[in-house]
């Protein structure tokens, strides 16, 4: 990790810190080095050394970088990120339902005898305990045991003569318990919880459609990788005689197979001194060529592309002709 970090710092200079994954790696490396240098001092004067070893666990987070290389996982992560606002609203709805049913549960079953699914923790005696019971039930985990305890309305399962604020002692009520639990299970487990799945599936389907219909970051990342092979020095230019091979070597949907001279002429790309073409002009041209073929609206494509066409060109950018 340290060698990789140093090599990237030498190659990228301050641009190294503009990439989030590099920042993540840098923090892990610095934390690991400090842990090794200051472990004895920190152990003696500050905190338990076991906590310092948690820093090593953070290295496992580097596996998340695989998300960048796995297109399918990236689509899933994108669908989840887009779903977060809707999932938050559904969560608020679920909390509101649990809040209302918790109040009802405390009113009807606060003094029910502890048995089966009603315990010292899972009961309706207090609001927090009621919320725990209802969360337990909405996962369909052991709600039948709670139902059994709430429907005990005859001795020896309960004692209706016990003095309590409830007119039935520590007994439950079959009719009220049945209506209460069945309605709650239907609303939460069968409706609200499934809304989470529906929202994520809908956004995942939409994400797949966007990938199929328009250009994505993957397409442009592929272009950048091909470009680096022709321009290892990072001059931002390639020669005109390399352009045909470059575009033919791209992957669909941006690839224009040979013979592609007519397509290059139609792009009308600016050519600078020494027959050089700037990469932004090329990427702009192949993007417009793609949109013209597939008749995709430019407004929609802008949401899927990562090229900044208005970005400043280098100082030696002086077009003298076009393709």
Automatic annotation (TrEMBL):
Residues 1-210 form the Ion transport domain. It comes from the Eukaryota. Keywords: Cell membrane, Disulfide bond, Ion channel, Ion transport, Membrane, Repeat, Sodium, Sodium channel, Sodium transport, Transmembrane, Transmembrane helix, Transport, Voltage-gated channel. GO terms for biological process: membrane depolarization during action potential; neuronal action potential. One of its GO terms (molecular function) is voltage-gated sodium channel activity. SUPFAM superfamilies: Voltage-gated potassium channels. Mediates the voltage-dependent sodium ion permeability of excitable membranes. Assuming opened or closed conformations in response to the voltage difference across the membrane, the protein forms a sodium-selective channel through which Na(+) ions may pass in accordance with their electrochemical gradient. Belongs to the sodium channel (TC 1.A.1.10) family. This is Sodium channel protein. It comes from Rotaria sordida.
């Amino acid at each position: 990790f340290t060698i990789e970090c140093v090599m990237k710092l030498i190659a990228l200079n301050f641009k190294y810190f503009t990439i989030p994954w590099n920042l993540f790696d840098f923090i892990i490396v610095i934390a690991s080095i400090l842990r090794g240098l200051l472990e004895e001092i920190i152990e003696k004067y500050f905190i338990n050394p076991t906590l310092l070893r948690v820093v090593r666990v953070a290295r496992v987070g580097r596996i998340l970088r695989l998300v960048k290389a796995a297109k399918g996982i990236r689509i899933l992560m994108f669908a989840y990120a887009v779903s977060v606002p809707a999932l938050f609203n559904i969560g608020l709805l679920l909390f509101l339902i649990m809040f209302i049913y918790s109040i009802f549960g405390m009113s009807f079953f606060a003094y029910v005898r502890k048995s089966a699914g009603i315990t010292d923790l899972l009961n309706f005696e207090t609001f927090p305990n009621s919320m725990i019971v209802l969360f337990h039930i909405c996962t369909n985990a052991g709600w039948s045991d709670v139902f059994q305890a709430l429907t005990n309305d005859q001795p020896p399962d309960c004692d209706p003569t016990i003095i309590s604020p409830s007119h039935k002692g520590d007994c439950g009520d079959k009719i009220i318990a049945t209506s209460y639990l069945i309605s709650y299970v239907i609303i939460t487990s069968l409706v609200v919880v499934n809304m989470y799945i529906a929202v994520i599936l809908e956004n995942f389907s939409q994400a797949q459609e966007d990938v199929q219909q328009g250009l994505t970051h993957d397409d442009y990342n592929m272009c950048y990788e091909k470009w680096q092979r022709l321009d290892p020095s990072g001059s931002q230019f390639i020669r005109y005689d390399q352009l045909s091979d470059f575009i033919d070597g791209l992957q669909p949907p941006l690839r224009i197979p040979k013979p592609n001279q007519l397509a290059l002429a139609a792009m009308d790309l600016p050519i600078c001194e020494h027959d050089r073409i700037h990469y932004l002009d090329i990427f702009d041209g192949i993007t417009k060529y793609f949109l013209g073929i597939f008749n995709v609206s430019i407004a929609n494509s802008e949401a899927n592309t990562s090229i900044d066409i208005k970005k400043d060109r280098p100082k030696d950018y002086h077009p003298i002709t076009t393709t």
